[in-house]
Structure formats: C-alpha cells, structure tokens
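Database export, one record per block. Field names are fixed; values are copied verbatim from the stored entry.
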Amino acid sequence: MTTLIEPAFKLGEFLTRCPESPMPSSCPPNRPRCKPCVSSTPLRLSTPYTYRNKTGLYTIGTVPHPFTMALFSEFRRSDIDIPWIRRESQRDRWLSAITKELLGTGISGAPRITKFKEIAASPFGVSHSLWVTAEKDMPDDLDWHFGFTIPRNATDGRSVTPVPGPERRPVPENDPMDGPVPNVEDLGKERALLVVAKEFGKARTESEEKLKGAIEAWNLADMEAWRFARAFLARSQMERLKWEEEEKTFIGG
C-alpha cells in the first residue's frame, strides 16, 4: 500500500516540519514558554494499518475504492474477476482493518461504517483527522483546511550531531505497526496498479461495469466509507468556495 498512501505520507512530512521563519532559532518576545523549532524533538510519523483513537495523534487517512483495495491486496494476482470476488475475497477488508483496534473482530459492516463516519465527521474527528480517497490527487486547498500555511520547503527541525561517522548519530525509531518497506520492483508494480485503478474509475467496458457492480455489492461497507470520504471532502471544498464568495466583497478581490 506504499504508493496508495504516498500523498498522505508526504503531507504528514510537511506538517512535521518547522514553519518558515527569518530567524529559525528565535522566539517571539511575548511568548516566554516558546521553544525554537530547530532545537525541539521532531514529530514522529508512522503508518499503522489500523486507526488509533488517541488525543495526541493526527490521522491522515487514505480510503481506497473496493476495486483498488482488491488490486493491491492481491498484489501477485494478474487479474480480478467476479468468481474470485464471491468465492475468495474478504468482504469489507479495508474497513475491518482500520476499525479492528476499536471494535475488534466478528462485527458486521454496519456498525463499522457508523464508527468510521464518527471518526471522520464528528467534531473530534474533524480536528484530529483528514480522510482522502486513493484515486484522486491531494486537495490543493489544504492551507485553508488547516488554517495555516503548510511548510513545504522549511526545515524539519532535526538536529544531527556534527561528529563524523554515522555511528554517533541517533537511530530513527520505527513504529512496530508500520508495514514492510517494498523493494524497487514492488514499488514499480504498485505504481502501475494505481494507474489501472484510476483508469478503471474513468471509463469502463460492459464487462468492467459488471465487475464494478459485483465488487461494490460485495463490499458495501467499504464502498460506503469511500463515498462518504469523497463527499465529506467535497463538502469542505464547497464551504471554502462559499466563504471566498462571501469574503471577496470585503477584500476587494
């Protein structure tokens, strides 16, 4: 799933960086408890396979369409067909995975999708998470969404010891829930599969339309999560456009 979450991971890297400043090692005189970003411990970034409901975490979630999920979960399989969907594929695999820590196993898709909507759209969820679909590019209005300019080209705040040799440098901490790192060959195949998934969503033949109907019907909860994430993000973008329309009369734009 490395290629699927790559845009979200890159956004996470941007958010862990220090904001641009002409004097990075200084603090405003009216904030005595401020600590310079360059001397602080950088925020940790991890890629767990399940959602973690913790106050101190911010989640950037990538929701795949059931067809995309099938392509990537059956990485070594050359094609996806209807008999495989009905006989071998696991139903609502994505939603079951991300809610496993919260709801456990043996629960149907209905309570899981209710929990996901709470995670994504509740007041707590909105302030602690952002959910995007895997087949579309990351929104271009994220500065408005977060309420500040995302530091895309600023320092990451890490302090590396100047002594020669890597043996004295701190070893990066790996989260035990992070998945394996793919090799170059697997990463290339992932990118090819993502292209297939994006093209599948644009135009389909009659047989592909039947395949789409079958995989969506077999994964109703996953499909509902994908639609909800897409609609909720579109709603946020509409709110931004409405706000700009109302505010332009005050700024002369």
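Remark 1: The chain has one domain: 2-16+41-154+177-251.
Remark 2: Residues 220-251 form the longest helix (32 residues).
End of record.
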